[in-house]
Write a structure and sequence with these properties.
InterPro entries: DUF1996. The chain has 407 residues and is of the alpha+beta class. It contains 5 helices and 17 strands. It is globular and about 55 Å long.
């Protein structure tokens, strides 16, 4: 655990970026689907799934994704899919309540036009490892996963952790993952969905593509999820583990197994233009790139919110649930030899009036009540993120070469 968190190293190679608030494709209902790792079948655990509507049990090609009727990203030419595990609060009796979360996705890339190659057709990748239950600090892949314990109170301090924070987080928990951004230039996928890509020379968020086996610089994707963990603070005494009551959807109570998946569904020419030209706002606000015609920025989803019917309907995954879908209760993470015996006998998914109504709210609630921007119609998640970023930038007098991805 580190608390000196905004000492992000400056990086010569990453300057420009944009960030975008992205909605859940299944309207906040995580689905036990992972076409990359479990093609054609139910996945081992549920995920929060974002992006193009043609997501499915089988991996869609880039062409199929591009034909999606809509996307939950605010950039109309991005029909990619992104997914991460979801988060649950674990009650003492073995039941779980889903934690709502809002997503922000960053695209980071060097300022120099021509230096970043867009993802090729059918490009896919996985960052992180769902089987990890320990931390290896010299592994770039593990450095790519971090958590912030958000605290925006006056005098409060936001802290960064390699595991799910073991403390109260007044403004919630932000899980973060960096994807590799150096590509072998040949393979669009690999057996482990990782071997065709590598992290940059300085780690997940700094350096260059200096390894001759991975010479091609692709956009760096960084995904943040703002989990409304603070909604549960008053219920901690009723948790199975009151000091750290949360668990990832795969049963990991430590958080080292957090991971992210990406399927390319971009219009290639648009992504090329974006990494060459989208460089006009030091806080990553994509509005100016939209105005300049680099891409179609549509944060309000003018043609209607993009959602998709559930792929799995017989397996509750939100609200109060008796077990984590797909996860053997006897195999919950860690060292803990805590009692998980009651979870298998509980009846599934009784909607309980005991659970607070806010617990199943998929929209991230704002942790900053004094917002000057409260009347704006723009998405609350991105507003909060921009505020957060601006505050950091002000505090640390940084310019655009601040490596936000390392927060
Ligand atoms: C138990 O968890 C480990 C680590 O994630 C996994 O490899 C194994 O398949 C799981 N076993 C069962 C029965 O779920
Ligand atoms: C930790 O990560 C480093 C770098 O990837 C690797 O060389 C080393 O073998 C890992 N250690 C363990 C115990 O897995
Ligand atoms: C477990 O505890 C929670 C919180 O008190 C309650 O809402 C839920 O109904 C309980 N579940 C079972 C199966 O008793
Ligand atoms: C969910 O949260 C949003 C934003 O905080 C709020 O406007 C909405 O009323 C909430 N919905 C429920 C069902 O609690």
């Amino acid at each position: 655990m580190k608390s000196a968190l905004f000492l992000a190293a400056l990086s010569a190679s990453v300057n420009a970026y944009w960030l975008m608030a992205v909605d859940d494709l299944f309207d906040g209902v995580p689905q036990r689907v992972d076409p990359l790792v479990y093609p054609g079948q139910r996945a081992g655990h549920v995920h929060k799934i974002l992006g193009g509507k043609n997501f499915d049990f089988e991996v869609p090609t880039s062409d199929v994704l591009r034909q999606s009727e809509c996307t939950t990203t605010p950039i109309a030419e991005d029909h990619s899919n992104y997914w991460v595990p979801s988060l649950y609060f674990q009650w003492a009796n073995g039941s779980y309540s889903s934690v709502g979360g809002g997503a922000v996705i960053y695209y980071l890339f060097p300022d120099t036009a021509g230096s970043t190659t867009p993802f090729p057709d059918d490009f896919r990748m996985l960052s992180g490892d769902p089987s990890l239950r320990s931390f290896n600090e010299s592994s770039f892949a593990q450095q790519a996963v971090t958590y912030l314990c958000l605290n925006w109170d006056a005098g409060g301090e936001t802290t960064r952790h390699n595991e799910i924070p073991v403390k109260d987080c007044p403004a919630g928990i932000r899980s973060q993952i960096n994807f590799p951004s150096c590509w072998d230039g040949k393979n669009t996928d690999s057996a482990d969905h990782k071997s065709h890509v590598a992290f940059r020379s300085g780690g997940p968020d700094s350096g260059d593509c200096t390894d001759p086996n991975f010479p091609v610089s692709i956009p760096r994707i960084f995904i943040e999820i703002y989990w409304s963990a603070q909604d549960f603070t008053t219920f901690k005494s009723q948790a199975k583990n009151p000091s750290q009551p949360f668990v990832l959807s795969n049963g990991d109570e430590l958080g080292y197994s957090y991971h992210g998946d990406f399927l390319n569904g971009w219009e290639t020419a648009t992504l090329q233009k974006a990494v060459d030209q989208c460089n006009c706002n030091m806080y990553g606000d994509p509005t100016c790139c939209g105005d300049a015609g680099v891409f179609t920025y549509d944060p309000d989803h003018k043609n209607g919110k993009c959602t998709k019917d559930l792929l799995i309907t017989d397996e509750p995954s939100t609200g109060l649930i008796a077990a984590l879908p797909g996860v053997d209760a006897s195999n919950l993470s860690t060292s803990a030899s805590e009692d998980a015996s009651s979870s298998t006998s509980a009846s599934a998914a009784a909607a309980s009036s005991a659970a607070p109504s806010s617990l199943n709210n998929a929209s991230a609630s704002s942790g900053d009540s004094g917002s000057r921007e409260a009347s704006s119609s723009r998405c609350s998640t991105i507003k909060r993120e921009e505020r957060d970023v601006k505050r950091h930038a002000r505090t640390h007098h940084r310019r655009r070469d601040f490596t936000f991805g390392s927060l």
